[in-house]
Amino acid sequence: MKTSIRFFEIFFALLCPALLPNAEAVNPPPDGGYPGFNTAEGQKALFSLTTGAANTAVGWYSLFSNAEGSFNTATGAGALLLNTANENTAFGAAALLFNSDGSENTAVGAAALGNNTTGSDNTANGSFALQNNITGNANTAIGAATLQNNTEGFANTASGKDALHDNTTGNNNTATGHSSLLDNVNGGSNTANGAGALAHNTTGDGNTANGDIALVANTTGEFNTAIGTQALQTNVSGDANSAIGHSAGFYVTGSGNVCVGADVLGTAGQNNTTRIRNIGSTPIIDGITVVIGSTGGVGDGILGYPASSRRYKVDIKPMDKASETLFALKPVTFRAKGNIDPGHAKHYGLIAEDVAAVDSDLVVYNPEGKPETLCFNSINAMLLNEFLKEHKRVEELKSAMAQQRKETEALVARLNKQEARIQKVSAQVEMRKSGSQMLVENQ
Description:
Distance between the termini: 162 Å
Structural class: alpha/beta
Mean pLDDT: 86
Helix content: 10-25%
Low-confidence stretches: 1-5, 14-23, 291-301
Strand content: 15-25%
Radius of gyration: 46 Å
Shape: rod-shaped
């Protein structure tokens, strides 16, 4: 305000020489010129003027009530009709019609800011733009009927026919595109870019929609982000959803969902689910679901499924004794630092630095070259190799034991057969002894 006052002081200082009696003037003098740098043309234009300065009124009853207000410009029938404030500009019939105390408003178009009374720093460009604004401040409306029903909302920006049309008390909204945020009433801090984006939002706050009819059905949902034509199109009341890509999250109606990629449509009623395009078609060597980077550093963030096909591998060799590295690893128990795990539960695992000291190929490093995480699928494969080796040894031992059992059973069978023979011979010997004894006794 001080800056504008200073500007007008300089402006009048430059004009003073032209007002001196001996200054050269046009002849005949223009009609409609009045003291105090005021200009009025039209029936009862500037009718109530007293001490106001540098006002321009052109049109029937334009600036009719202005008495002390200064630096106002009104062009059009009834423009700034009830104004008493300063530094307003109105172009168009009934533009800023009811403004009384609002200052530094600009209205271009029929009935633009027509009902404004005390709102200040508003800009309306288009027929009926900000027509019903009364006390709202710092609003910008560009396009026919933009922010038409705003009454008290402030710091809203609407560009495009009917953008933020029904907003009344919502604040800090930005709508760019035909009918964007059309039905918003008192929702705040929403951003809509694209025809029909967030068109039916009424009370939802903190939503961002970029793309034609993105979040078009949303009414009360909050903190949603939709980037792409038709993104999150059917969401009505779901909160905190994020969708990036053409039609991304099209069917999402729940909350906390993430859909990334064109035509990643999501599922109605589902919550806290993440869907990312190409996860199922991007092969990744080593089997880490999130590839940290082509050079082993965190940052690339390539996602994909573990690749096992021979098509993606070279230098294929049996693992053999390489997996015996596992025997040097030191499993530990631990608890996570800070808020990584609010429950501070006990976990079981390995320390990347310890594993790096044993086998650096089992570790993934960050861009600074520090150990970050482990190649768990490699470790699992090594465990499998050791299991198979042990299993083979057990099978060989079982086979040897079976063979030994057979041999033992055969030996036992032979011994039993031998024992039977011995018993038979012993019986025969006993019979002979008995027969000889009887013969002797008979003699």
